[in-house]
Amino acid sequence: MRQYEYSPRPAGSSTIRVLLLLPNTDDTASISCQLINYSLPTTGNSYLPYEALSYVWGSESTSRCIFLDGSTLSITDNLYAALLHLRDRQFPRILWVDAVSINQQDDLEKGHQIQLMPTIYSRASHVIVWLGRAADHSNRALVNIRLAAEYESSGDEPTTPRRKETNCTAILTLLQRPWFRRIWRRYYRSVIRRTTLFHPS
Q1: Helix or strand or coil: residue 185?
Q2: What is the domain range of residue 109?
Q3: What share of the chain is helix, strand, coil (3-state, %, to 5)?
């Protein structure tokens, strides 16, 4: 099957590509998508009907293929795992994903689209953070981060010292994942609003 070929973006255009992630009831089925041109509004500040995915690309040495408008496109294994978990069984999902929405072989397009990224993220209905596959009690870490905030406001002390130590270890391990190292570096260059941490169960 032929490789996907991008159509050029008009120079200076505020048009972006959003990814329509097609549903499938078979969780092991290949990922099929469509790319749709979408013009970012130049006025207003309402949230727009797509979700933006924030993730770490991961190693490009182990790539996977998705089906895009009847052609194939290579993506990293980490992005493939994210799309697999985000795919709904019944309904299509509209996403902005930099590795797919931007033609990575076109430096002029990349330069222009990067300038639009603050708008793309801030106007998205949600920003989904993909932290990677579950490992090292990461599910427990996310639960305990949420519970810690609730306990802080209520003043409860629900766990034993030993359990608290285990929870802290899981949380610290989670915070050492590549996404957090990346976001700390970019903290002062971009602000992500309405962020939802996403992690598979």
Answers
A1: helix
A2: 15-137+186-197
A3: 35, 25, 40
Structure tokens at 124: 């998205």
- Write the single-letter amino acid at 87: R
Which tens digits make up the pLDDT trace of 37-47? 999 987 888 89
User: pLDDT digit string (tens) for 32-80?
Assistant: 999 999 999 878 888 999 999 988 776 767 789 999 999 999 999 999 9
Indicate the SS3 state at residue 159: coil
CB 167 within 8 A of CB 144: yes
The one-letter amino acid at 100 = V
Is residue 110, in this structure, part of any structural domain at all? yes
Our count of domains for the chain comes to 1
Task: Give residue 200's identity as a one-letter amino acid code.
Answer: P
Q: Are strands 32-39 and 15-21 parallel, antiparallel or unpaired?
A: antiparallel
Q: Which residues are CB-neighbours of 198 under 8 A, at least 6 positions away? A: 82, 85, 86, 128, 129, 130, 131
Closest of 87, 115, 114 to residue 103, by C-alpha? 114
Asked whether residue 155 is assigned to any structural domain, the reply reads: no
Q: Which residues pair with 96 in a beta bridge?
A: 52
